[in-house]
Design a protein that fits this description.
Length: 426
């Protein structure tokens, strides 16, 4: 067993502990305790006031077997509940836009078909992005992939999560696309990856395909689905009136279908009526969702994934973060892709959310980036909090001197240079 003392221990599922002690054994957390309480080894006590800061994750060994890490905060690795690792090669190539459909047009002009084979350099960009996310404290991801090219890089890096095989097709009239792409998922599943399916969005995926995906997901070992929903005003117009930029784009590319019936409703109602969203659904973005729609998602038990920096980049505005929490819906945090954000630092998303929602408790924001994300991805038994029995996937954040409110400090902007992974003994 190894015991670590830190200026702060932030378990997430309980209040932070100043001068706390984390006990780890066999790669698992076996206890979190107050200084001097329930000592498991002789000589264990509270950290001496004024102990100097040290490189996080290393510390000094004290008599009694406690490693003092100094002025750091220990907390669980973060959960990035929504990203697109296969778009990492587009970093710096798709500029910010004032209109979402303009951003999409630029993306596709550069990227080409979503199902195109990836090049060696594009795969290398996935590896680099995963290393960057890991350096920023990310323990697991909810990754959207058209190719499943991220499965092997994630496995090699030891980053957990779910890879969602994203399917789209507004003219699809059944679930045959699921069968035509099954070989990709079977190969990924054979490697031990957690893989599921994801319909892209209401303007790009037919209801027939939505229903087929939901049915297929429900039969899987990982019955979790993710969908982009309520992201842009153009999406709202499309569903309410059947008009606008999305219809024009579908017509332009020959993907319009004349038998589609305008639903005359909001995005949540559209999918709710179809019976395709439930408590195992990640609703990504939600920028345009009404209070009634959010209340419905809360009653269903779905999770909204906020990606504020990406939303601003692609021209859809900022998500109504305070309304998310006020509605009672579960909230997780995502960075989205490097095609629409500067980096994969979830702490930077928390800083943006703190700015957007000054009335939301810092502890609540931190839970969204850890335990709520783990729950949404089906990983809460292993990750998301410093709870006895969970995996010792712990990060140490270097502090700039003594910190009075550690939760507020952690949502105010943390740089990767401050972060290291606790070297827990296996």
């Amino acid at each position: 067993m190894t015991s670590y003392r830190a200026a702060w221990v932030v378990p997430i599922d309980r209040a932070p502990i100043q001068d706390g002690i984390l006990d780890v054994d066999g790669g698992r957390i076996i206890g979190v305790r107050e200084p001097g309480a329930g000592s498991r080894e002789p000589g264990a006590g509270s950290r001496e006031p004024g102990a100097g800061s040290r490189e996080p994750g290393t510390g000094t060994r004290e008599p009694g077997g406690i490693t003092d890490l100094g002025e750091v905060a220990l907390l669980p690795g973060l959960i990035n509940a929504h990203t697109h690792l296969e778009l990492s090669w587009l970093r710096g190539r798709v500029p910010p836009a004032s209109k979402f459909t303009d951003w999409v047009k630029t993306l596709f002009a550069i990227r080409g078909r979503p199902d195109s084979a990836m090049t060696t350099s594009q795969i290398a960009a996935i590896h680099d992005a995963i290393a960057e996310a890991r350096a920023a404290g990310t323990a697991a991801v909810g990754d959207i992939s058209n190719s499943l090219a991220s499965v092997e890089p994630l496995r090699r890096a030891g980053v957990d999560g779910v890879v969602f095989h994203e399917l789209l097709g507004f003219t699809e009239r059944d679930g045959s696309l699921i069968e035509r792409t099954r070989f990709l998922r079977e190969s990924a599943l054979a490697s031990g990856a957690r893989v599921s399916l994801a319909p892209h969005a209401p303007y790009s995926t037919s209801l027939e395909l939505f229903r087929a995906i939901r049915a297929a997901v429900d039969e899987q070992a990982c019955p979790i689905m993710s969908v982009h929903l309520g992201e842009s005003q153009e999406e709202v117009e499309f569903l309410e009136k059947g008009s606008g930029p999305w219809r024009r784009m579908l017509e332009l590319i020959g993907a319009w279908r004349d038998d589609w019936t305008v639903p005359h409703c909001d995005p949540v109602t559209y999918l709710d009526r179809a019976g395709v969203i439930d408590a195992r659904t990640l609703i990504v973005h939600g920028v345009q969702l009404t209070d009634a729609a959010l209340a419905r998602l809360a009653s269903i038990g779905a999770t909204v994934v906020a990606c504020p920096r990406s939303n601003a980049w692609v021209g859809v505005g900022y998500p109504p973060v305070e309304r998310f929490y006020r509605s009672g819906v579960q909230v997780a945090v995502g960075t989205d892709s490097l095609a629409s954000v500067d980096d994969l630092n979830v702490f930077a998303e928390l800083k943006a959310m703190r700015w957007l929602a000054p009335g939301v408790a810092a502890a609540t924001l931190l839970e969204s980036a850890t335990l709520s994300g783990a729950r949404a991805l089906g990983l809460a038994a292993e990750l998301g909090s410093l709870t006895t029995g969970k995996r010792a996937s712990v990060i140490a954040v270097a502090l700039t001197g003594r910190v009075a409110d550690i939760e507020e400090y952690l949502v105010s902007g943390i740089n990767p240079s401050q972060i290291s992974w606790l070297k827990a003994e296996s």
